Amino acid sequence: MNEHKLEQNIKKGVLEKIKSGSIHMRLKSYFTARLFLVIFFTVLALLISVFVISFVFFSINEGGHQFLLGFGSKGISTFFSIFPWMLLVVDIVILILLEWLLQGLKFAYRFSLITIFIVIFLSSTILGIIFNLTPIHGILLDKADKSELPIIGKIYESIHDSHSDIGVFKGTISSIKDNIIIISHNDKDYDADDGTHNVILPENYPSLNLGDKVYVFGSSASNGLIIATGINKLTTNDADVK
Question: What is the average per-residue pLDDT within 187-202?
Answer without folding.
Answer: 79
